[in-house]
């Protein structure tokens, strides 16, 4: 559908507007607050999560544009998050870290009670609750968007509003990297371990991959222009440019696995643009190229976009193959040889062994949310040195250690229901395929890296995941 053929180019009611605002603010504000790695970012996400149920019930009870059953499905689908909060609250009442005074100093003592099924090893009881509240807020923003925003044109606006800040954050990251190189000072910005406003390069790469998908999905949905100036002013061009810059940032700063996944997403998005621009009868009829009369022959113009996308996609695909080859040479996908704090193969193996020993002690409910950095020190072997470790190899390992397999099941419950429903439809558009690929890439990164330590990534993942589930059943 061409932009000019869309009758309603704004949100249809105030509930939809509020859902858009909460989703965009949750993504952009947390990213601007030091990549979501600050207390301000966590607090902002929790505060914005309060708007999600307000926008949903306001829209569902007053307008008929919301999806059926939104009033009761919304709280039901959030039950796993509420259950996780309840488990964290119970664990706080059963700490495994005690405090004793010895020689005039206060010392932390590990005192596990095997009879307790649910415990907490966090130093501060606030951290487990705020972490679960942030996850609840991210899920609420995504679900509210799914139930209230039922127009593809509105969803595209959200992708645009969130991709533009990511574009400027990438520019800032390259500027800081250039300044660091010129000045010969690695301490400018967050150094080699971070990028732009993100202290963690892993979090930035996941954020970039997600909004690569958002920008490319918006570009695929937008109309192809065949005249030069209209093409340069169209969102299809700028969405592609935005995604290319985000891809470059992931390749520049990311580990081999992140660079490979980013390249695969970019290549897939560009080939989707090529498929949508292929001069078939249906595409030419859709874009009404026959109306173009002046200048270069219509027969030439109708092939130019397709050939340009195909050439660019082939170049990015070649880069993707090279990055996948680098990943194949690594001992593990979690490693990043270029990182200033890169682990040796011996350290990676030792960390995996110690993490396995820790998780085997409490496989069902784990050691409690936000407890890894404290409890792991009592399982840490000599191969890892005396310094405390803040995170395991991946977010998946962290989830199993802190929340157990029960917590992992709660995390996967609602997305699994939506995924089954999406597979049952047996229908997927090009835009939806690009969205789904970027979401799948971020989910895979959580299995080998630690991007979800940033609430900006958490919010972005939730918004795009539920936008993917709702895209093919939305109007437009």
Your description of this structure?
It is a single chain. This protein is an all-alpha fold. The protein has one domain (about 85-125, about 150-470). It has 19 helices and two strands. A two-stranded antiparallel sheet has the order 1-2. A hairpin with a 2-residue loop joins strand 1 (about 95-100) and strand 2 (about 105-110). The mean pLDDT is about 85.
Q: List unreliable stretches of 5+ residues.
A: none
**Rough outline:** globular
- Major β-sheet strand ordering: 1-2
Number of strands: 2
Share of β-strand residues? under 5%
**Helix and strand pattern:** HHHHHEEHHHHHHHHHHHHHH
The description of the largest β-sheet is: 2 strands, antiparallel
Radius of gyration: 24 Å
Please work out how many helical segments DSSP would assign: 19
Distance between the termini: 7 Å
Given helix and strand content, the structural type is: mainly alpha
Helix content: 55-70%
Number of individual domains: 1
Helices and strands, with pairings:
Layout lengths: L13 H19 L6 H11 L1 H12 L7 H8 L1 H14 L4 E6 L2 E6 L15 H23 L3 H32 L17 H21 L6 H5 L2 H19 L2 H22 L3 H7 L10 H4 L2 H25 L16 H17 L10 H4 L19 H31 L4 H19 L6 H17 L5
Antiparallel strand pairs: 1-2
Short structural summary:
With 476 residues, the chain is an all-alpha fold. Helices cover 65% and strands 3% of the residues. Strand 1 and strand 2 (105-110) form a beta hairpin.
Which properties best describe this structure?
two-stranded antiparallel ribbon; single chain; 476 residues; globular; mainly alpha; 65% helix
């Amino acid at each position: 559908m061409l932009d000019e053929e869309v009758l309603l180019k704004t949100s249809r009611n105030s509930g939809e507007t509020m859902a858009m605002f909460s989703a965009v603010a949750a993504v952009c504000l947390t990213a601007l607050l030091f990549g979501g790695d600050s207390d301000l970012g966590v607090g902002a996400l929790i505060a914005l999560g309060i708007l999600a149920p307000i926008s949903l019930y306001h829209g569902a009870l007053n307008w008929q544009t919301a999806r059926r059953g939104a009033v009761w499905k919304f709280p039901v689908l959030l039950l796993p998050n509420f259950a996780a909060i309840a488990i964290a609250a119970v664990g706080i009442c059963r700490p495994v870290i005690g405090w004793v005074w010895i020689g005039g100093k206060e010392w932390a003592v590990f005192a596990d009670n095997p009879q307790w099924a649910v415990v907490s090893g966090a130093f501060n009881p606030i951290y487990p609750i705020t972490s679960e509240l942030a996850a609840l807020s991210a899920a609420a923003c995504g679900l509210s968007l799914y139930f209230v925003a039922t127009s593809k044109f509105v969803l595209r606006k959200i992708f645009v509003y969130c991709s533009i800040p990511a574009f400027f954050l990438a520019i800032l990251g390259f500027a800081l990297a250039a300044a660091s190189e010129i000045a010969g000072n690695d301490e400018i910005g967050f150094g080699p371990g971070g990028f732009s406003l993100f202290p963690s390069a892993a979090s930035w790469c996941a954020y970039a991959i997600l909004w690569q998908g958002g920008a490319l999905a918006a570009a695929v949905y937008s109309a192809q222009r065949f005249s030069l100036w209209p093409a340069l002013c169209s969102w299809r061009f700028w969405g592609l440019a935005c995604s290319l810059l985000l891809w470059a940032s992931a390749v520049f700063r990311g580990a081999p696995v992140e660079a490979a996944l980013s390249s695969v997403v970019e290549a897939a998005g560009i080939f989707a643009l090529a498929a949508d621009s292929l001069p078939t009868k249906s595409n030419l009829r859709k874009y009404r190229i026959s109306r173009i009369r002046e200048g270069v022959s219509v027969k030439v113009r109708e092939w130019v976009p397709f050939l340009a996308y195909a050439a660019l996609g082939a170049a990015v695909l070649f880069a993707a193959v090279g990055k996948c080859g680098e990943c194949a040479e690594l001992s593990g996908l979690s490693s990043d040889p270029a990182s200033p704090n890169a682990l040796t193969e011996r350290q990676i193996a030792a960390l995996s062994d110690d993490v396995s020993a820790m998780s085997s002690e409490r496989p069902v409910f784990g050691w409690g949310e936000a407890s890894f950095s404290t409890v792991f020190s009592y399982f840490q072997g000599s191969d890892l040195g005396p310094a405390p470790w803040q995170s395991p190899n991946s977010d998946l390992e962290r989830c199993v250690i802190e929340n157990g397999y029960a917590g992992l099941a709660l995390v996967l419950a609602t997305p699994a229901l939506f995924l089954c429903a999406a597979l049952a439809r047996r229908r997927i558009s090009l835009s939806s395929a690009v969205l789904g690929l970027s979401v799948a890439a971020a989910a895979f990164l959580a299995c080998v890296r630690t991007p979800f330590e940033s609430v900006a990534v958490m919010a972005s993942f939730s918004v795009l995941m539920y936008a993917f589930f709702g895209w093919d059943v939305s109007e437009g």
